[in-house]
Every structure is written in C-alpha cells, then in structure tokens.
Amino acid sequence: MNNFLFEFILRLGDDNLILGHRLSEWCGHGPYLEEDIALTNIALDHIGQASAWLKLAGNAEGKNRSEDDLAYKRIEREFVNLQLVEQPNTDFAYTIIRQLFFDVYQLYLYDELTKSSNEEVAALSAKSLKEIKYHVRHAKEWALRLGDGTKESNRRAQIAVNDLWRYTHEMFVTDDVVEALIKERAAPDLASIKIKWEEMISQIFNEAKLFIPENEPPIILNSRKGVHSENLGHILAELQFLPRTYPDANW
Question: In this structure, what DSSP letter does residue 212 have?
Fold first, then answer.
C-alpha cells in the first residue's frame, strides 16, 4: 500500500512541478503586465502544490528523501508527470489550452481526493482546490476570448486544441497503482472523472466556437512509468542545473 501511495502522490507532485516550471517561462513575456503577473502567480501555485505533494511523497516512501531531493535529484526516467504538462509554450493559445485541459482534470480529481481515506491526501487536496478553482476560471475566460475572438485568435486556439488533444487521454489511464488505491478508497475512479471532464470541456468549447478533433489518435507512452517526450529532458536540464552544479550550496 505504501509503495502504491508513494507512486500516486509522486504523480501529483510531478504534474505540478513540471507545469509550474513551464508556466514560469512566461515571467516577463506575458501579453501584458496584468496577465504576466497572473501566469506567474499560477506558476507559483503549482510549485507550492508540488512542494507539498513531494514532501508527502517522501514521507510515504520512508527513505528520508525530502521534496528537494525528489525535485532535483531524480533522472528523467524517474519522473512520472503527464506528457501534457511538459509540452512547450508554443504560443499563448497553447499555454491556455494546455492549462484548460489540465485545470479541469485537476479540479475534478482533487474534488474526489478530498474524500480520500488517506487524511493527509484529503486535506492537501481540499487546500489546493481553492487555487485550482481560480485556475479553471482563468483558463476558461481566456479560452472563450481566444476562441470567440478574432479569426486569428480562433485559428491559433483551434491549432492548439488539435495538437494537445492527443495528450489528454493519458490523464484517465487506470493502472495497478490507481486500482490498488481505489480498493483502499484512497483514490477515485478515473473513468468517472473523465465523464465530468469531457462535459465541461465540451461546454466551454461550444461557447468558444472550438471543436474537439475527430479521429485524432491518442498518445499514451506510459509517462506514469517514466516514458516521456524529449521536452522533459530540456526542462530538467534547466530546473536541476543549480542544485546539481552546487550540491552543497545553502541559502
């Protein structure tokens, strides 16, 4: 049980860590000052959640690894984040659509996790939900502005949807880790979350005049077992540079 719990919590931490790093790349490059600050704050939210989840994962593992150890001292194949969150910030539309897909997933996942039989998981999920609800509202408002805006903004948003849709299927894959925790009532059935996710995304897309791609083959490379796109290696090279170069540095 502890091994499965560690793996599951690690996934929650890695998703937030990598997405937070991706969003931090917008700092100083936002379309205007207010949005630059908004994206930076959302990035900080994800990094804060990552720190909390990775600390909890370290406790569940029982090998005296801190959240910093898990963030900075693992190699690429040891990370278990979704491929969706490691996709690059091709343009602002890509960032918003990627965020929308993940935020809605995280909203329903964490809402169910507040009922987890593991009290620490339930408490941290409840605390994180306050931030996630804002993230969903922010992503939804921008998706509507881009999709139902100009011809160019709609075109760019639809291209982002077409390219990123294939990565969304992986969010709902149930494996031995999830199955074990479902039996312990520590994690929810991802199939039920997928139904809610699809309903909200479809509703937003209808308003935004965006379309779900048809006949788009899913990309499921088992990232939950450490298989990733080349993007993660580039992220980790930057993310881990300082602590790996100066391992004994203190602040």
Answer: P
pLDDT of residue 2: 67
pLDDT, position 205 = 98
The CATH superfamily holding the domain 2-245 is Ferritin, core subunit, four-helix bundle (1.20.1260.10)
- Rounded Cα gap, residues 71 and 79, in angstroms: 9
Long-range contacts of 232-235 (CB under 8 A, 24+ apart): 232/18, 232/76, 232/79, 232/81, 232/86, 233/76, 235/18, 235/21, 235/22, 235/86
- Domain edges within the chain: 2-245
Write the pLDDT tens digit of every residue in 181-239.
999 999 999 999 999 999 999 999 999 999 999 876 766 668 999 889 899 999 999 99
